[in-house]
Design the sequence.
């Protein structure tokens, strides 16, 4: 952390409070780690969060070691001064790197699953570690002066840039995605990731100014709990199989849109049903049926990419999906329905499936001058879907 390099003499008054604060933070982090470990169906983001929490627990332990050395509980020797700061800086850099991986996992960036890419991304951590470990000889990042105090070296700024660089990079990428993505539910996640570093950064700066007050550990714990609860909320709001919004999220979004019309745009609801889905399950098994649903969800999401952030994709239940779209004309909704059908056919061919993938799409347009309940609006789309099914069967 910023304050791992501490200046000045040792005092005993703060050690007890500082150590107790770190122990409390370790216990709180332990609760998160325990709950993640007990989850039998972990998402990649939960695995990375567990890694981050574990590293932070080690970091808090290193801070206890530093306080014991700094407070004179053990004889403060030159090797111990170096060692206590090596642990804090290296573990903080690793924690920041783990946060970057976690943020990318939450944002569904598949690149971080590549070990070569992860190794390249970790280069700043290795550089920081080498500088810390060799500081005893080189003094480039810190050294012990003639008074026995630890002083920053010429390259000390690197130890600050590395952890903050990871956090700032993650935030910038998240905010950029938030303003460019079309998915309503995911936008909230992007903003959450973007705002995550605020507490650690602000409290880290505060601890740099008042370095014997354990501000940063409280900020890290608050941020970790925030991320954990946000991930849990996301898991609750997403369909676990297809990773699109579930029915409850769809109802929330649709309720909002039915109350606030956008000038110049109409509200459409497209209900999508998989043709002959029962035969896929009966012939090839439910595992293959689930695979088909995942592919169809991807095809729908692909058709709903656009520059105006006007689409909301959800799984309505079983083999039915719902798209809520704001468009200028019904012809645009009809075009979107055809794009969905086309994408579904293509994705089936691309994966060399032993069966044909096809969907039927029903469309309903909301009339703001004559408001109706959500279920009635959905029923209109369902009625149109039934007509399309009959046409396809004929």
Sequence:
């Amino acid at each position: 952390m910023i304050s791992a390099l501490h200046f000045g003499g040792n005092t005993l008054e703060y050690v007890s409070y500082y150590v107790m604060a770190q122990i409390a933070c370790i216990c709180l982090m332990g609760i998160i780690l325990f709950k993640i470990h007990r989850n039998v169906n972990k998402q990649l983001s939960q695995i990375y969060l567990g890694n981050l929490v574990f590293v932070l627990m080690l970091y808090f332990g290193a801070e206890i070691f530093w306080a014991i050395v700094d407070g004179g509980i053990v004889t403060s020797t030159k090797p111990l001064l170096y060692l206590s700061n090596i642990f804090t800086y290296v573990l903080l850099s690793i924690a920041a790197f783990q946060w970057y991986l976690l943020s990318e996992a939450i944002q569904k960036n598949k690149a971080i699953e590549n070990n070569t890419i992860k190794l390249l991304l970790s280069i700043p951590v290795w550089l920081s570690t080498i500088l810390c470990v060799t500081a005893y000889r080189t003094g480039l990042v810190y050294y012990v002066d003639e008074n026995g105090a630890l002083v920053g070296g010429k390259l000390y700024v690197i130890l600050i840039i590395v952890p903050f660089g990871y956090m700032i990079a993650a935030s910038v990428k998240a905010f950029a995605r938030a303003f460019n993505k079309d998915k309503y539910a995911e936008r909230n996640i992007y903003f959450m990731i973007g705002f995550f570093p605020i507490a650690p950064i602000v409290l880290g700066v505060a601890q740099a100014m008042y370095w014997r007050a354990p501000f940063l550990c409280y900020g890290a714990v608050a941020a970790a709990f925030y991320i954990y609860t946000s991930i849990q909320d996301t898991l609750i709001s997403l369909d676990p199989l297809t990773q699109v919004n579930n029915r409850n999220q769809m109802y929330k979004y649709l309720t909002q849109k039915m109350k606030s019309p956008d000038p110049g745009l109409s509200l459409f609801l497209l209900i999508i049903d998989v043709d002959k889905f029962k035969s896929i399950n009966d012939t090839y098994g439910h595992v293959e049926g689930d695979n088909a649903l995942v592919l169809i969800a991807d095809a729908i999401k692909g058709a709903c990419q656009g520059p105006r952030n006007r689409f909301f994709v959800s799984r309505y239940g079983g083999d039915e999906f719902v798209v809520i779209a704001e468009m200028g004309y019904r012809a645009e909704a009809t075009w979107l329905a055809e794009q969905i059908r086309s994408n579904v056919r293509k994705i089936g061919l691309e994966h060399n499936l032993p069966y044909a993938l096809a969907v039927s799409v029903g469309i309903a347009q909301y009339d703001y001058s004559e408001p109706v309940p959500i279920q009635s609006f959905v029923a209109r789309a369902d009625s149109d879907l039934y007509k399309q099914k009959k046409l396809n069967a004929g």
User: Anything to note?
Assistant: Residues 1-10 have pLDDT under 50 and may be disordered. The beta strands are 142-144, 150-152, 266-274, 311-317, 320-327, 359-365.
